């Protein structure tokens, strides 16, 4: 059953220079929760997010996504999890520059293949949901940062993932726009019961979340 | 699967369209190599065609002489059953076994004689241009070649209709010569042929066989092929019977072998420009992959696997190849036309009369086959050049690619 839960136990990530980015971390998140994680630069937030997003491999410990143990040795399984269960939102929006807003939202469904009509239908729906129907033909460089991040949110949702991982999604936005983006993410979380795991260094957005975790010196605390 | 590929093709096309100038210049790199290949092959094909055409016009191409073959030191004779087997080869209009012998005239003019059946003679050589008549079966009548007729008239005083005594030399079992005299009558004279038959005499087969002491197998078989286009297939079939085929077609064989060598040699130079073209594609695609490091990382993060990335990069190379192929064909046709006009004028002025025959012919011949080959090389080379950049892209680490791209 794909319930959006995340469970991490004794997770350690050691890089080649022998620094432990993550040191024996354990926590779990219930499906449908909106969780923010705060921490200083270099506290291991991105390392954790990359492992949860199946882009990086832990040095030790285990991760359960949707109640299932992730086998980090199996490349095709990792790709399948990324295609079906996880949506990414990045700090730098990371839209494909030569594709329009509409095409950017459709993009993940090219790999996790859905026919054109289905892709277009879902993308239009989501662009409307994030309030950018009128901008669907625009390229990323014709949109403001806030608009680009809305498109990125729509892209992260297009394949109906159970978990959204956001890496400082408001890091490049002013405070008004940041607040709007958090509001939008929270609304989507409530409408769709999608788990949101949002890494941020701004404590003020704690109020949007069900839970807040703080990562410091390789350890994890509730805040 | 096919739908996905179509959508990938559209996506890759957008990528290529964005970098029109770069793609065009890269394609031009390949196109120049392709144009050189097309120019060289069309020159080879043109000379081959001109030479073959003049051989066709100047020789009796559809006449083949089949002779026994020596294999592993054993002569494979032409028995009457072999003659029958030759007759059954497709596209053969007529075939007849022959015996050979030689006459000496009173003033020691030596004449090569071919003994053939009257019917075969008519079907193989026809009755025109023939002055006089064909020999009758069982007679001592002969039909002479043009040159030998002149010689006989000049030095022996023997003309059409005259009868003369000739000596036939045979060797007995102990190797001693045994001469036999016989009367012959010139019944007909061939028109000019410009081949060996100008110096040969044809006579009734039974008569010659008797002169020869009734040997069990033929000395050769003359074959008439129904059309010049079927000569080489008939030659193949004859060789398959374990026999040797001779005739004017050998000149075409020789031209083909020569042109194959020349074209192969010249192609080495074209190959150098193709290698440079391929290196340009590798360079362009590596730059393109580097520029899009982040994009590739994002694609992997949101679900693209290595095959997807490789497919997308290879599709871009395919477009470069198609553009290079089309451009190469256009340049190749122009290049061939240049060789034809400039090269022909130079050749004629430099070689003089020898090549005067080329004034009415084209020096180059661009065939659809050559153009198709040029296009194929362009596409194949582009795909080959794309392998390394594609693998490089597919093996990126998505985390690093997104962070550093």
Report a brief summary of the structure.
The complex is a heterodimer of chains A (223) and B (405). Chain A is of the alpha/beta class. Chain A is built from 7 helices and 10 strands.
Report on the structure:
The complex is a heterodimer of chains A (about 220) and B (about 400). Chain A is α/β, with parallel strands linked by helices. Chain A is about 35% helix and about 25% strand. Chain A has 7 helices and 10 strands. Chain A has helices spanning about 45-50, 75-85, 100-105, 110, 115-130, 145-155, 175-190, and strands spanning about 5-15, 20-30, 35-40, 60-65, 70, 85-90, 165, 195-200, 210-215, 220. In chain A, strand 1 (about 5-15) and strand 2 (about 20-30) form a beta hairpin. The longest helix of chain A has 18 residues, at about 175-190. The radius of gyration of chain A is 17 Å and the shape is globular. The model of chain A has no long low-confidence stretch (mean pLDDT about 90). Chain B has about 400 residues and is an alpha+beta fold. Chain B has 12 helices and 11 strands. In chain B, helix 2 (about 20-60) crosses helix 10 (about 305-350). Chain B is elongated. The interface of A and B includes residues 79, 83, 113 and 115 of A.
Helix content of chain B: 55-70%
Helix percentage of chain A:
25-40%
Question: Major sheet of chain A: size, sense and barrel closure?
Answer: 6 strands, mixed
How would you spell out the order of helices and strands of chain B? HHEEHEEHEEHEEEHEHEHHHHH
Please tell me what the overall shape of chain B is: elongated
Pairing-aware structural class of the strands and helices of chain B? alpha+beta
- Beta-strand portion of chain B reads 15-25%
* Lateral strand order in the biggest sheet of chain B: 3-4-9-6-8-7
Low-confidence stretches of chain B are: none
Identify the biggest protein-protein contact and residues per side: A-B, 26 and 22 residues
Shape of chain A: globular
What would you call the quaternary organization? heterodimer
Going by helix content, strand content and strand pairing, the class of chain A is alpha/beta
Q: How far is the N terminus from the C terminus of chain B?
A: 30 Å
Radius of gyration of chain A: 17 Å
Continuous helix count of chain A: 7
